[in-house]
Amino acid sequence: MATLDIKKGRVEMIHGSGGRASQDLLEQLFLPLLDNPWLNQRNDQAVFDLPPGRVVMATDGHVVSPLFFPGGDIGSLAVHGTLNDLAMAGARPCYLSAGFILEEGFPLADLHRLVASMAEAARKAGTPIVTGDTKVVEKGKGDGVFITTSGVGVVPEGCRLSGDQARPGDAILVSGSIGDHGVTLLSLRESLGFETEICSDSQALHRLVEVMLEVSPGLRGLRDPTRGGLATCLNELAQQSGVGMQIDERQLPVRETVRAACEFLGLDPLYSANEGKLVAICPAKEAPALLQAMRGHPQGEEAAIIGQVTRDPQNLVQMQTRLGGQRIIDWLQGDQLPRIC
Amino acid sequence: MATLDIKKGRVEMIHGSGGRASQDLLEQLFLPLLDNPWLNQRNDQAVFDLPPGRVVMATDGHVVSPLFFPGGDIGSLAVHGTLNDLAMAGARPCYLSAGFILEEGFPLADLHRLVASMAEAARKAGTPIVTGDTKVVEKGKGDGVFITTSGVGVVPEGCRLSGDQARPGDAILVSGSIGDHGVTLLSLRESLGFETEICSDSQALHRLVEVMLEVSPGLRGLRDPTRGGLATCLNELAQQSGVGMQIDERQLPVRETVRAACEFLGLDPLYSANEGKLVAICPAKEAPALLQAMRGHPQGEEAAIIGQVTRDPQNLVQMQTRLGGQRIIDWLQGDQLPRIC
């Protein structure tokens, strides 16, 4: 066994060999930080019992650049991203896995920092990272670190959320201000300085979802508006359900700084990524109680009813603008913000 | 919707945007090939029922270079890799997920070919790829394609395989010839031409494991000797269980071509990766029946008893050589074969 120099050392190709050096990295960096009985058992897989119910599985690759940003880093983002994909099915997340692709030369201090951040995010959410894998690629064949997380969870009896169940007349809600994550990242990349006032909304939403399921038995579907932002998310839901959507710009929660940064950057908050918000579709009659419950939860304080589902064979998403006009909110066409998550 | 030019097109940054172009890639390439009800539902996660039993989860990143090789490609390898990690716990694999990290400029024809290969491998194994994710990184920030697969399976009642249960006196078996995958890849990279006679052993082993569990109720543990080869695998098991191991070189199944290629390349088949073989530890009295059952299965025809577990506080793996000497089989120290899986 060689002692890793976590302060000044770097990832080397031998750390991906599967041999002694791989073990050193595992034993001296990953295991002490992620510490849990499954991982400590040192098998190539984890075995566990799940509570009764239907099982949910999700996976998400993370290639965000830069790796560290106000409000989070690729480590916490990779945990929240998969937790939220599970939560959007109404699931209680139970266990996570993580696959790392490291670039030769990546500082071990940075790896340590972001694995510590993953560990903290996983601990807060109550979902241990029970199995994982590490690969190393040559310098110039990767970009620091990519992390793919997967997760399994369990859906409570009777819960059948899906994106294809929106019906005309349903209400559309968002859980809080939109665009924060995307705008923070872009401002940081362009060194615009807005990021001193705004930060990523990266957070796990499963506890908010739990509360929502209690008050809205008819809840149709949930989705987190990540890449492509709220606009893309609504278009996906409209297409899946074969409906249209009508939203009201005046009801959209957008932070003033985000609005200002968007104007400066030529962005639209509707298309800017979120990493800790959700869109909910529910029967109109359940919307007031759902809204109230969301606002009573720390992750939903700025929740709003933003519109309703319409009958539309073209599955258009339309928005009544602040000035009273109608605007079609199309799919994101280009690539507004590459590598945002 | 734009029609993808799968023959001549390339991966572009917008395919990772989450917007219209991402949908096009999903609808025109991934969905038709991987076709199954979960994926076709277009949610960000999959919901399913699992048969009763303890649940197993595994994950494996794949960065193999080159992407296509005799006997497989990164697509089939990514399916077999995770299936085998599940099978080594004695599990029946049930569902898979796949996360793709694509490099800008990667030919869509190659992507199509390797996703088709994944689909075929998944179909053969009876384990659909039910959820997934695609990210795109700039040219020069990746290397064609990396694939991280995860899987869940279920362990039959009473089965408690683990790498920490080897006991002095136990028999050590391998399911077939060793070193094929690693040597094939290295020969290909160095353009040595051996790869016309040998090929990767990449294959799913869960059906072989099923047969083994039937005949060896006392089976202690299984592990697939991938990166770092048989030598590393035995060292891991010895360390986990706090035992030593004694193997016999004359019993090791090694193909003649692999032996010749190893001599030429200065490699040791003991340290060369396998992607379709397993090591089994079982009580000595169950070994003959286990060996017979393995040899009766297409994936275990060349199985052999290669040695036994010893009492050794230093957890050494030792080998009696062909010439009768004793050699310590240490952990892989350097990086014999980078990016082998």
TrEMBL record, chains A, B:
InterPro entries with a match to the protein in the record: HypE, PurM-like_C_dom, PurM-like_C_sf, PurM-like_N, PurM-like_N_sf
Show where the PurM-like C-terminal domain sits: 167-314
User: Which GO biological-process labels does this protein carry?
Assistant: protein maturation
Q: Which ranges carry the PurM-like N-terminal domain?
A: 43-155
Annotated family? Belongs to the HypE family.
State the taxonomy lineage.
Answer: Bacteria, Pseudomonadati, Pseudomonadota, Gammaproteobacteria, Chromatiales
- Give the source's domain of life in one word: Bacteria
The record's listing under CDD domains reads:
HypE
Protein name per UniProt: Hydrogenase expression/formation protein HypE
